[in-house]
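Re: the pair you flagged

First of the two:
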Amino acid sequence: MDKFDYQATTKEGKKVKGQIEAVSETQAASILRSKKLYIVKLTRIEVMPGWMKLFSGFARVKREDVVHFTRQLATMINAGLPLTTSLSILKFQSKLPVAKMVDEILTDVEGGGSFYKSLQKYEKVFSPVYLSLIESGEAAGVLEKVLERLAVNLEKQAEFRSKTKNALIYPAIITIAMIVVAVIMMVFVIPKLTTLYEEFDAELPFMTRALIGISNFVAKTWYLMGLLLVAGGYSFWRWKKTPSGRATVDKYVLKMPIMGKLKTRVILTELTRTLALLIQSGIPIIEALNIVAGAADNVVFSRSIKQGAKEVEKGIPLAAAIGRYEHFPPIVSQMIAVGEETGKMDDVLYNLSGYFESEAEQEIKGLTTAIEPLMMILLGVGVAFLVIAIILPIYNLTAQF
């Protein structure tokens, strides 16, 4: 609930002031009038101080914040609390920047706006799927059911993404560590050893000469290499933002060895789960397909689904429309055909989602199992190369004395 400062007068003309808690300014005014007070001034107490508002503009609402917001809101509404009361409670329980967002949503809803319209102002926070479900749920009067389904779906997505990211943390750490060690050796260690070798005029093996050559090149041009790396990365990022760039990158990502298969499983897991949620919530199949296509994380899949929606609109079964694209495994069209025949499309899609999630988890386990020994072999080869290139000349020098 919000807090309000008020100034009022009694019937006798006596001035009074104080604070009052209420869901909205209208309710606060109603409470004061019921106490036979004539309102002179009524001001909402701000949720956050001015200095916090200043820094709130630099923060953004994260994906996990949306998950928590949806779960808490679904729980309160299913418990029988009105939407405005639930939002008011959430506002005080949340931290920046979520509290600021909820405060603005609450203000819109209290002003007579729809919940969907208030969320639509945050299109970068709430996905098209999320907004479409809220709109249909609010229109049908089943907002509590839609929020519950959304909460479950978002929690499953978050758990799945967390598993995928955690599986790749170890290889990423090892790779970064190897690069850092190699740079330190090339820039700081090898030049000092080179000076030592030159003083003794030692005859150096080929591996040592090659290592010194690489070290000299890196030490002299590291700033240029860094500049080229930053410029190249920025150019690639800008190109990837273009329609043709993104289409090219997404196409080749799916064709990558091992990682391409894993990416396909991850995309199919989210697509089938989201489509099942939309259909279960009563959204027509063509509209649901277009929403899913817009939310897809890969242009190749997005274009295929959009084309499939056009064909379904002409009367072609979805199974046939999807089955002609090679990046959709045969099981997708087969299971969708079963769903179309039985009229249980949402159940079939949920089962498909579970199947692809299980497949993706197996792919991740296989990938991490294969990467760990591979990384150890690469690390061992690198260490062996450095030892032979650095220690062997020193051993030869000591043998001369």
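Second of the two:
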Amino acid sequence: MNSQIAPAPYIIHGSLPDRYPRGWFCIGAGYEFSTEPKMLNYFGTSLVAYRGEDTGKLHVLDAFCPHMGANLADGCVKGESVICPFHEWSWGADGVCNDIPYAKKIPVKARITSWYTHEANQLVYLWNDPDGNPPIKEQAIPDEAIVAEEGWTPWVIRRVHVENNCRELIDNMADKAHFSPVHGLPEITHFSNVSEGHKYTQFMNGHSENGLMKSEATYHGPGYMIHKSTTVAEGEPDRRFMSLVMNVPTSMESFEFLAGFKERVPEGMEGDIDAQTAYVNELIDDGVESSVFADLAIWKNKCTIDNPILCDGDGPVTKLRQWYAQFLVPVDQVPESLQEKRIYDKTS
């Protein structure tokens, strides 16, 4: 009779953050926004995004009119203001009510939140800070020189609603072991992560079905990651492409997953934006089973796990989570040590 007592089964612990992360979040390509109001359901509420008729500048406001609760995204734009469809109250880009057609005096309290926006890399970004502070200068989204190069297609953006906390997506940066079973990458020859302040970069080289792949992916804050990759195959021209992996929380238990793609313009498609977009969409559809969308099936049914059992072949998951945690606390609680550059090489 075996008298040894078997160890108790491991108990998974998991908890959700108690606030939304602070930082810049990409909400789409610049051409997706116009003077037609667009509804955005982010950060547990509804927002309205529109371009001003006079300046073309993008404005984002809280969408619910505090008069009688109508959604401003159902209204229209006049000048730089959005007009409520219910009673035609006019809300300026600063969130202040600037006209009520039937009133002699505008109530002093008639003010809604105006969100900080930014445009770079042919994309649109929205700043979120639960403490209401303005954007941090040092965390501004940089212009990527490669995006401005001639010969690239427009960004093609795909959106998917995911029923899980947005933090789940971030783990992929350090999760070296998932690239083979989920994304079909046969061999990884180099894998390292570099964290420095609000930036976190993954460097990865490997052998794919199409040749030698060299990849660099950088998160600028908690919601926006740009990925640049080159595939080299003997006897073939190098294939360069760019992609985006992004998230915007919709609730504590859900997020909008945004993936963006840019390809080199094929010969014969120069100047034909429709053909270029169709070409990129076809490539996305052909590779959907092994691309960034392959993670969707995992996120759909996985649990939140704060205490994962890790082995020596895993990537620096714990270090990545420590980096991400800085966006879930007030600025004055962010450890100074996170500003230091740290390299985690998990090649072997």
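The mean pLDDT is 95.

-B.
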